From TrEMBL:
Coiled coil: none annotated. It comes from the Bacteria. This is RNase III domain-containing protein. Residues 1-22 form the signal peptide. Residues 167-221 form the RNase III domain. Keywords: Signal.
């Protein structure tokens, strides 16, 4: 009986070591020159175990002030995104991104809902524009993990990971100069962890600037 008790105790300890209940991954990111990084998307994908179930989200990308708001959005796969026109004139939203090509017109106060696809890479980057206001641009990242967030203005972010194990950590910004606009690293997560990450570039974010030109044909578009 004593051996059985020890055996069960060892199994319990092993099970406990494999599961970290809401331990925190904290990431601090700096530019190559040491300056603070503008907000980027951070997400974590487990490599040696299954990710938790999908988190239901309400995602909206508005067209407001002749711009996409927000400029950069992240969402989990199998959720839908709502495009809403808050301007008092028409927009013609489109994307030519792989596996996520679309085109639709939105009059003032109209909305359009869609569910984006992901690629074999496990995520999808969708760049959007407007056929009427050609300076407008917005970006949507679709990931296949519930572990994602946006860094703050100090280049810091936290993720609550439910289980110990190996994770691929990814940074994304549509204006990164790297391949596919991402940087990745693999970590062994055993509990509360702090990562200091220095980028191999200095990110300079250039947001689209609205034209002051008026379009007389918009009312009939």
């Amino acid at each position: 009986m004593f051996k059985n008790i020890i055996h069960l105790s060892l199994l319990s300890s092993l099970a406990f070591s494999l599961h970290v209940h809401a331990a925190e991954l904290s990431v601090s990111i700096r530019n190559q020159d040491g300056t603070t990084v503008d907000p980027v998307i951070l997400f974590a994908e487990p490599l040696d175990h299954k990710a938790p179930d999908r988190v239901v989200q309400k995602v909206e990308i508005a067209q407001e002030g002749k711009a996409f708001a927000p400029f950069m959005t992240v969402m989990q796969h199998e959720n839908s995104v709502m495009f809403t026109n808050r301007d008092d004139f028409t927009h013609h939203i489109y994307s030519i991104s792989d596996d996520n090509r679309f085109s639709f017109k939105l009059k003032s106060d109209e909305s359009h809902e869609m569910t984006p696809n992901i690629t074999d890479s496990g995520h999808a980057q969708i760049s959007m524009g407007c056929n009427i206001h050609d300076w407008m641009s917005g970006h949507l990242l679709v990931v296949n993990t519930p572990y994602f967030t946006r860094t703050n203005t100090d280049g810091q972010a936290q993720l609550q990971l439910e289980q110990a194990g190996q994770y691929k950590i990814t940074l994304w910004h549509p204006q990164f100069r790297s391949d596919n606009q991402i940087y990745t690293r693999t970590i062994e997560f055993k509990g509360d962890t702090i990562i200091e990450w220095s980028l191999p570039e200095t990110l300079v974010v250039r947001l689209p600037e609205a034209s002051t030109e008026e379009f007389d044909f918009i009312e009939q578009y």
